[in-house]
Structures are given as structure tokens and as C-alpha cells.
Amino acid sequence: MKIIYNIGLLVGIQPEGVLRVEGEAQGRTGVINDAWLAIEDGRIADYGTGSVEGDLDAHGGMLMPGFCDSHTHVVYAGSRDGEFLDKINGLSYEEIAARGGGILNSSDLLNQTSEEELYRQSLVRVQEMMAKGTVAMEIKSGYGLCPEGEMKMLRVIRHIGENVPATVKSTFLGAHAVGRGYSHEQYVQAVIDMIPQAAEYADFIDVFCDEGFFTVEDTDRILSAARHLLTPKIHANELAVSGGVQVGVKHLALSVDHLERTTDAEISALKDSWTMPTMLPGSSFFLGLPYGRAKDFIRAGLGVALASDYNPGSSPCGDMRFVMAQGCIKMRLTPVEAFNAVTLNSAYAMGVSADYGSITRGKKAALILTEPDWDLTRLAYQYQTPFIRQVLL
Ligand code: NIG
Ligand code: FE
To answer: Around ion ligand 2, which residues have CB less than 5 A away?
Structure first.
């Protein structure tokens, strides 16, 4: 048993059994001032208020659950900084992709890179994320775009998960773009053929269901082939109102992600589903897209998760504190709504909220201890000031 004492503010307390927060509940979280917290076997054993003797002096800092990042593409090779000038000069994401840049550029780089080197490059990013407080993350394939490349990525994701203290969930995103040398139709079939092998490594399956990438019909076929093997998490409505939300809900997707473009029909489709709408403000920021209508979703009684989308093309940043701040500044979430979006709801969106995302007895003690005098409002408001004293993993 290890006791953290002298905690100025313990935030993120939830009763046992709360796996996500929706509607008004997204704006609430349990808080205790002058607290202590006991850890046993890596899990939260108990917590309370008052001064006690202990092992780790929190020096009056805030103790909060670590960030959960349910949507990343951090396994990639090289960089796409060569496209950055095109972007600055006004080319859109679609125009860069149409010129042979974009995802296919990363795919070429990945297929030229050895598995060991890919692991080495990706691990650096994962370590950066953990240093910034991320304790659980999802990582997608999707830059192989052929059976060898996709399985190489899934092996690297597994290898990372085995070697870092953070929890890593793995998603097979074969349907990220049409691989070189395939027709669209051939590639959709190739993705379907990869599913059984991918299911040996991955937890989830994803499809980039959007204009210029994969259609609702492609998505329906791929998800039907994956039924009972891989739970869906879908890229939807980034570039257009794609129908991806509805096809995701139909296939019991755990999350539908991006949602920069949505109408009320998407909100209705998500009501009473088990699917978590997940928004990625980092890609809105980087690509100059609209921010998701998180507030409307919450007003409609839904929960919302926020994730980083860390990837070389649309969000080269895995800083979940910045994601939280954007939730407040750009999406008008309250600090508590944004905090729940980057912890409990994001944990739910990758199936780990029984273990992560809140201060709850029995959950993993995967925590961020801040410097003194921080609270959730200041975390989002003063969004670049260093705040972490220690990440406990
Ligand atoms: O989530 N939208 C599709 N996939 C990624 C971008 C991947 C890339 O450009 O490399 C995204 O934004
Ligand atoms: Fe993505």
C-alpha cells in the first residue's frame, strides 16, 4: 500500500460502474479538497479527506486521472513536413492527397522502413504522449495499405503495448486509403481478406468512411465481414456528411470519430446507442476545418469524447491537455465537460473505462499529479504553462 498525501485537489471522482458520462452528467465530476489517495497493486484502493501520513507528498498539487487518447495514428514512418508548405500555401487535405501526398506518401515511407526502425520512431512519440500525461491510448494501422505493411504496423503496435506502462489498444485501419496497385474494388476485397489475420492482433476495426475515400456501402461490407471478430470505430464526417455515423451505429461501433461536419440527423442516430461520438479538435485546428458541435451533442443528452488524432497529416500533436483546452476555447465546453471528454469518455471510446478515466476504487492508479495551485479551469485556460509534477503509471 502506498499513500499519496497532501493533495490540494482530488478531481475526477466517479462512483463504481459509471463507464461514460452523458448530457448534464458530462458537466459534473467529484472533487475533494485536502485529500489523500491509497494505491494497492497498482490500483486505487481508497481515498478521503484530511491530513494523513503517507509515502508521496503531493505538495498541495491536483491529482487527476491520466488522459485517455482513444484515436491516434502514432505508428508512422518519417514525417510529412514536406507537405507543410503546400498546406500553408492553401492546398486542402484533399488536394494534397490527390497530388500523391497525404496518406499514400506515409504509406510509401512506411513500406520502405524496417519493422525495428518503425518501432523505434513510433516509440518516441508514445513516450512523448506519456510524458504529457496520456496513460491509455489507441493506435491505428492504416499506412501499410497492403497485407505485409498492415500486419507490420499491427505487430509494432502490439510490441509498443508490451513495452510501455501505458495501456495500448490496437485498431486495424486497412481501409484508410486505397493501396497502391489496387483498384478501389480490389482493395476493399483485400481489406476484407486481411480481417482474419488482423483480428489476431487488433481490438478494433476502422474505416475512413468519407468523401474520396470509402463509401457507406464499402464500410457496410467491411464491417459485416468483421462482425464477431473486431468491434468498429469509424472515421466519419471529416470531409463531408458521409453517412459514416449511421453505418457505424448500425454495426454497434464503439465510437464514431471526427464529426467536423454533422447535421441533427447524426445526433438523432447516436441517441440511445452505445456509440461514443468522438471529436478531434487537433485536426480542426491543423486543417482549418469546422470544430465539432460538441455542445449540441451534450445538450441533446449525448456524451462526447475528445482525442488527439496524432498523425503526420492532419494533427501532428498528441498533447491531450491542448485537446482539452481546444474543447473549451473552440467548442465551448466547460472545463469539466472537456475534462470528462479527455478522460472517462475517451476511455469508454476504446473500451477501457472499467479501468481508466476516473478516480474510482478498483481502477488503475494511472494518474497525473500537478504542481501546486492547479485546477481544471486553469488547466484549460493557461493552456501552455507546464503543470505536470509527475505522471504515475
Ligand atoms: O484521422 N482522416 C483520416 N486519417 C487521419 C489522417 C491521416 C493522414 O493524413 O495521415 C485523420 O485525420
Ligand atoms: Fe484519424
So the answer is: 309
Tell me how far the alpha carbon of residue 364 lies from the centroid of ligand 1, in angstroms.
31
Pair (374, 286) in one structural domain? no
Buried b (16+ CB within 10 A) or exposed e, 328-364: bbebebbbbbbbbbbbbbbbbbbbbbebbbbbbeebb
- Cell, residue 241: 456528411
Which residues does a 6 A CB cutoff place in the pocket of ligand 1?
73, 102-103, 106, 208, 235, 238, 283, 309, 311-314
> Is the pLDDT score of 79 beyond 90?
yes
- Looking at the structure, tell me whether residues 39 and 80 fall in a common domain: no
Pick the ligand that lies closest to the CA of residue 286.
Answer: 1
pLDDT of residue 38: 98
Among all chains, which residue has been given the C-alpha cell 508514445?
126
Evaluate if residue 101 carries a pLDDT over 90. Answer: no
User: Which of 79-83's residues contact partners 24+ apart within 8 Å by CB, and which partners?
Assistant: 79/312, 80/105, 80/106, 80/312, 80/313, 80/316, 83/313
pLDDT tens per residue, range 224-239 = 999 999 999 999 999 9
Q: Are 270 and 364 members of one domain?
A: no
pTM for this structure?
0.98
Amino acid, single-letter form, for residue 284: S
Nearest CA to ligand 1 atom 7: 313
DSSP per residue over 52-68, as a string? Answer: ---SEE-TTEEEEEPEE
